[in-house]
Design brief:
- This protein is an alpha/beta fold.
- It has two domains: about 110 residues, Response regulator (Rossmann fold, 3-Layer(aba) Sandwich); about 230 residues, Hypothetical protein af1432 (Orthogonal Bundle), CATH 1.10.3210.10.
- It is built from 17 helices and five strands.
- Strand 4, helix 3 and strand 5 form a beta-alpha-beta unit.
- The two termini are about 35 Å apart.
Amino acid sequence: MDQVTAICASSEDAQFIRRSLEGIFQTRCVPSDRILEAEPPGQYTIIGINLGDIGEIYDLKQWLKRKTKDGKLIFITRSGSRLEAARAYALGATDLVHRPIGMTALLTKLRGDLKSLAAGSPDFQADGSPGLVAAVGALQNVFAAAGVGAPLDQTAIDKAGAAIVEQIRTEGLEAWIDTVRKHHSQTYQHSLLVTGLAVGFGRHLHFSHSDLKLLSFAGILHDVGKARVPLSVLEKPGALDDNEMGIIRQHPLFGSEALAAVPGVSAQMVDVVLHHHEYLDGSGYPHGLKGSEISDLLRILTIADIFGALIERRSYKPPLPGDVAYQTLLDMGPKLDQDLVREFHAISRVKPKAA
């Protein structure tokens, strides 16, 4: 869990910040008269000092000399006060929140606006495709809820699963992939691809309707932890550096934390969220599970997850052709269930239009 340091002159501000970020960030609140005793600023810092107090400003300047280069520095200011805004930016503010502070506004400043992920684009047309409309709506619910620690609307996700299964049955997997790869968000595109591939694979394996819905639910939910990854990392229009990759690799744990407080989520779904990057040979993460410790549902979803990542469209790389992506699955050898990989060959041969 990421840590936020809050420097507050007001105990009310400190209490509000602590309550708002509980379960999402580890929050350390420091009174403004003890700034110089605080540990160095980290990735996320919230400043709620009296911007008219010369002594507090001086101490803050001294403390901020130890700030990390790319850390976020969010100042709490009075709405409409140009003087406070100017002083905040002069002190190095990367953003502002205004009093009265709102929880959603605060989280948006820290993580980025998750609503932008769902925004439509001219190329992505889900109208007339009930499964896609339902899937996008379910993803919005999943990411919005996980981002603020709210309960999931499991009924809506279940209904979306049924609509996805029906659309892929009637219109086919190729049409699903064609449309999904036009979504502007890398995060949504990937989740939608994985969901469609998992359902398509389940159909090939002659799964029951209830099991297909389970696969759909797993596909929608598997990357829920990405709701707690900064948007600048999640949607970066280029390859991730080592530090950013380290943040991304925490998303299974973030997802597990997000689901921990949600009543009614099955242990099977928590397992999917936490372990969809585990490999049969023990080389995966976060727990290095091996062999029989990895369920059949996870084995299927992991194959869909890897294949989906290989064929998705990114701004900095074209999607791999299905046959090349499938060869990658074969080349992974003991990491994956190769009996299932061989069955997946029929799914890999779908020929969506070039993106």
